[in-house]
Amino acid sequence: MTGPRLPDGFAVQVDRRVRVLGDGGALLGGSPTRLLRLAPSARTLLDNGRLEVNDAVSAHLARTLLDATVAHPRPSGGPSHRDVTVVIPVHDDVFGLHRLLSALRGLRVVVVDDGSAIPVRQQDLERASCQVEVIRHARSKGAAAARNTGLAACTTDFVAFLDADVVPRRGWLEALLGHFADPAVALVAPRIVGLSQSDNMIARYEAVRSSLDLGRREAPALAIFLGQGQHLGKRHRPALGRRARSI
Predict the structure, then answer these.
(1) For residue 188, which of 159, 215, 217, 229 has the smallest C-alpha distance?
(2) Mean pLDDT, residues 2-19
(3) Residues 98, 111: Cα–Cα separation, whole Å
(4) What is the pLDDT of residues 25-48, one digit of tens each?
(5) 131-137 and 219-220: which strand pairing?
(6) Is-contact 136 122, C-beta < 8 A?
(7) In the chain, what are the domains?
(8) What confidence tens digit (pLDDT) does each residue in 100-124 have?
(9) Do 101 and 109 meet the contact criterion of CB atoms below 8 Å apart?
(10) Which phi and psi (to 5°) does residue 224 adopt?
(11) Is the confidence at residue 15, as pLDDT, over 90?
């Protein structure tokens, strides 16, 4: 086991693409593909490929399955939405901003106006159903810089990054927060799909071949090595910060 202990109640589910060999004595799969042999005691803990943590032994097995990328987390519980601040960089997209804010009822939000031609003003957002703070860049510095500015203004344990042109589905935050029940998780991200069909050729292409859409299947994002002694990230794929996972 390479990560901290998983809490009781946390469950994992073996990936459906993993092959079960030898009457459950071994699992073949993961990325990269590997053969994982299970002791007789470990086999009895798996129920149709599902394992729920209730002691140190089951916690060790669950972590091993996750680290081998042959299973996916099925968390129970997680942090509260009160522990989250949403950061929204925006540049000349007031319509998208208002649409997004309407879906963030009751949340704490930092809007970073990245040099819009018509500035986003605090008083323009007073009717929003969330607590909004507006920060402005006098000139555009780019989305990454705007996110960093918003991050610096956050005091909560968790930060969710949303762009002004997205519309999160109901339950999006709870689904992401649950993964932080695993103390090894640092970043979680959802699937990103197009809003709707359009007559615009580029929009139609984006709806089916968007570079942001990483597919239906959940997956871990492993460490990326940048050079000697350097690496970025640890585990799991798209934006809620603090092991990263795509769901």
Answers:
(1) 159
(2) 91
(3) 11
(4) 999 999 889 999 999 989 999 988
(5) unpaired
(6) no
(7) 11-74 (no CATH), 81-246 (3.90.550.10)
(8) 999 999 999 999 999 999 999 999 8
(9) yes
(10) -110, 120
(11) yes
Q: What is the DSSP string of the chain?
A: --SPPPPTT-EEEE-TTSEEETTTTEEEETTTTEEEE--HHHHTT-BTTEEE--SHHHHHHHHHHHHTTSEEEE------GGGEEEEEEESS-HHHHHHHHTT-TT-EEEEEEES-SS---GGGGTTSSSEEEEEEESS---HHHHHHHHHHT--SSEEEE--TT--PPTTHHHHHHGGGGSTT--EEE-----SS--SSHHHHHHHHH-TT---SS-EE---EEEETTEEE--S----EE--EEE-
Q: State pLDDT tens for residues 190-228.
A: 888 777 666 777 777 777 777 777 777 887 766 554 455
Question: Is the CA virtual torsion 15, 17, 18, 23 positive or negative?
Answer: positive
Q: What is the pLDDT of residue 196?
A: 66
Output the pLDDT for position 1. 52
What pLDDT does 193 receive?
Answer: 78
Distance CA 129, CA 99 (A): 11
